[in-house]
Amino acid sequence: MQQQPEFIEINSALRLRTPKKSDWDLAYPWYQNPNVMYLSEGVTNKTYELEQIYNMYEFLSTRGELYFIEVKENENWYAIGDVTLWEENLPIAIGDEEYWGQGIGKAVIKTLLKRAKSLGMTKISVPAIYHYNIGSQRLFESCGFKKVGENATEKSYEKIIK
Length: 162
Hints:
The protein has helices at 34-41, 50-63, 104-118, 134-142; strands spanning 7-11, 14-17, 65-73, 76-85, 92-94, 123-130, 146-150, 154-160. With 162 residues, it is an alpha+beta fold. It is globular, with a radius of gyration of 15 Å. The two termini are 19 Å apart. Pfam families: Acetyltransf_3 (PF13302). Residues 14-162 form the N-acetyltransferase domain. InterPro entries: Acyl_CoA_acyltransferase, GNAT_dom.
C-alpha cells in the first residue's frame, strides 16, 4: 500500500497535511465549539478534552489516513479542521466556523476520492450523518454519495469509486 503523503495540495490556498501527534493539540478549540460537537458528535452538553481528541485521532489514524485541513493566509498555513480517508467512514470536520459554507469540504472530499481511487478503494461508506446536519448531507450528495440507509436519527451514504 502507498505511504500516506505528508501533504496533498488541493489548490494554492488549501491543502491536507498529515499531522504529527505533537500537532493534535491544534484541534482542541474545534472540539470545544458546541456547534461542531452538535453536528459531528450529536451532543449539546459536552465538549472533548485533549485525551478524547487523542483517543479519536489514535483510532482514526490506525484505520485510515488522518489529515488536517489547512488554509493559507498571509503566506502562513493554518489548520482549520480534520478529515480521515477510510473505506468504512469519511469523517470531516471544519472546526473553524469562519470557513463554513465556502466549498472547502467539497474540495477536500473530491480530492480524497481521487486519493481513494489511487489506493485501489472501490467504495467509501459514511455510516451516520444526523438528520439535522443538512450541510453534511448536501456535501456528500454533491460529491456523488448516495443514501443507502436511514434510521430515526441518521442517514448513511456510500459512493462507489470507479
